[in-house]
Design brief:
The structure is a single chain. This protein is an alpha+beta fold. The chain folds into 2 domains: 3-170, Alpha-Beta Complex (Cyclic Phosphodiesterase, Chain: A); 200-293, 3-Layer(aba) Sandwich (Aminopeptidase). It has helices spanning 14-26, 52-64, 94-104, 129-138, 193-198, 244-258, 273-280; strands at residues 3-11, 38-48, 69-78, 85-92, 120-125, 144-148, 150-157, 161-169, 174-176, 183-185, 203-211, 214-224, 227-235, 263-266, 284-286, 289-293. Helix 2 packs antiparallel against helix 3. The longest helix is centred in the last third of the chain and has 15 residues, at 244-258.
Amino acid sequence: MTKARLGVALLLPAGVSAEVDGLRRALGDGALGRIPAHLTLVPPVNVREDRLGHALAVLRSAAAATRPLALTLGPPATFLPDNPVLYLAVGGDTEGLRRLRDAVFADPLARPLTWPWVPHVTVADEAAPGRIDAAVGALADYRIAVRVDRAHLLREGPGRVWAPVADAPFAAAAVVGRGGLPVDLVVSDGADAEAAALAGAGRPFCVTARRDGAVVGVATGWTAGAEASLHCLVVAHGARREGVGSHLLAAVGSVAADRGCSAVVACVGAGGPGEAFLHHKGWVADGPRLRREL
């Protein structure tokens, strides 16, 4: 049975994430671009594919018992001399944060730890001690407030790139149909593996294009059986007509081929720029969709 390498983290909201990534870039963090700015709850753990549903259930249960967390990040600190890591200390509702961590750190997401869990946001890993000391002094007054309203399950992919595969909001599920056949309704940022399977969405993918560290385009979708579905392809306004879309489209085709697909399909607005772009790239009409054989 194959295993997935998973982790559970609080991903920082977009504005805060961009600011923290700026610090990571300035400090030469080697993980920048491979994993988003985050606060780890469960470090990497190997989970059998047939137990992914159990892992999702643990995450959902822990998140449902949690309410949004008001945290502060900073000032910088380090794990030296044990570990050459520079991180932002975490304050605020640390009691609620620890309760969440204890709830989610359960089978199959529990694992032996080398060091006790300390809530932190890494800004430089494997940094030179001299550089760490200089940063601790230079950023001694750094503080930023952050409100986190959900936890994410992340999965490691090729190139040691980590991407979120499910999110669980900090709120109890809305239950409808009490007295009959009750149904729990949860709003999340995306479909987890179980929801995607029911929807026929299959295995998701995301291709991100960056230039000088900045995101200039992204393509998302999923693969199921012999078909890949392109759900979204977006190029940043300042990077259009520079071949980014073509590169993303080619990468989607490569992902689809690697997963055994023979075609990529997409639904786009009739007469719009998306339809014109795909037609230009050799896609043909397939009922209400456009299609490209691989």
